[in-house]
Amino acid sequence: GTFLTQVPLSLHGSVVKQRMQMYNSPYRGLWDCVQTVTRKEGLGAFYRSYSTQLTMNIPFQAVHFMIYELMQEQLNPHRHYHPGSHIVSGAAAGAISAAITTPLDVCKTLLNTQENVVLSSVNVSGQLSGMANTFRTVYRLGGLPAFFKGAQARIIYQMPSTAIAWSVYEFFKYFLTKQQMEHEAGPRSRK
C-alpha cells in the first residue's frame, strides 16, 4: 500500500504499462506486475529510466512551446481566440516535439521493460542501466534507425492530445479574461 503512494505515479505507471504491453508479457495483471518487478528487480526498477524521462521532458516541452508560439505567430498574429489556429498549432507542436524526442522515448522504453530477448540479442546480461549504456545498446540493435522506431505512433498519439490541451487552455484563458474585463467594467459603468 505505502509503496505505491511513495512512487511518482507517472513513472511507476509508465514502467507497469510498458511491461504489460510487451509481447508475451509474463504478468497476469497490474498488481502481479508491480509485485513481480519489485520482488525480482527491487524498487530501483521503477526509477531506472528517471534520468531519461527528465532528459526527454525538458527538450519536449521547450520545443513544444516554441513551435506553438511560432505557429500562432503565423496563423494568429493578433492573438485572438481562434479555436482552429489553436488546434493546428497545438497538433504541430506535439508532432514536432514527439518526433525530436523519440530517441529518448525508445531508450526509456528499453530501460523500463528490460526486454530479455532484445538484451540477449546484443549480449547484454543482467539489468541495463544508465542512459549512456542504453544509447549504445539501441545503436547496436539497429543503428540510427533504431532510435526512431515507433516515431509515427508517438506522433499520432501526441498530436490530438496537445491540440486538445492547447484548445482547452486558450478557451479558459479567453473565458476568464472576458469575465475579468466584464467584472472590472461593471462598477465603473455604474458610477
Automatic annotation (TrEMBL):
<dbReference type="GO" id="GO:0031966">
    <property type="term" value="C:mitochondrial membrane"/>
</dbReference>
<keyword id="KW-0496">Mitochondrion</keyword>
<keyword id="KW-0813">Transport</keyword>
<feature type="repeat" description="Solcar">
    <location>
        <begin position="1"/>
        <end position="74"/>
    </location>
</feature>
<keyword id="KW-0406">Ion transport</keyword>
<keyword id="KW-0410">Iron transport</keyword>
<dbReference type="GO" id="GO:0015093">
    <property type="term" value="F:ferrous iron transmembrane transporter activity"/>
</dbReference>
<dbReference type="Pfam" id="PF00153">
    <property type="entry name" value="Mito_carr"/>
</dbReference>
<dbReference type="InterPro" id="IPR023395">
    <property type="entry name" value="MCP_dom_sf"/>
</dbReference>
<keyword id="KW-0472">Membrane</keyword>
<comment type="similarity">
    <text>Belongs to the mitochondrial carrier (TC 2.A.29) family.</text>
</comment>
<comment type="function">
    <text>Mitochondrial iron transporter that specifically mediates iron uptake in developing erythroid cells, thereby playing an essential role in heme biosynthesis.</text>
</comment>
<feature type="repeat" description="Solcar">
    <location>
        <begin position="81"/>
        <end position="175"/>
    </location>
</feature>
<dbReference type="GO" id="GO:0048250">
    <property type="term" value="P:iron import into the mitochondrion"/>
</dbReference>
<dbReference type="InterPro" id="IPR018108">
    <property type="entry name" value="MCP_transmembrane"/>
</dbReference>
<keyword id="KW-0812">Transmembrane</keyword>
<keyword id="KW-0408">Iron</keyword>
<keyword id="KW-1133">Transmembrane helix</keyword>
<protein>
    <recommendedName>
        <fullName>Mitoferrin-1</fullName>
    </recommendedName>
</protein>
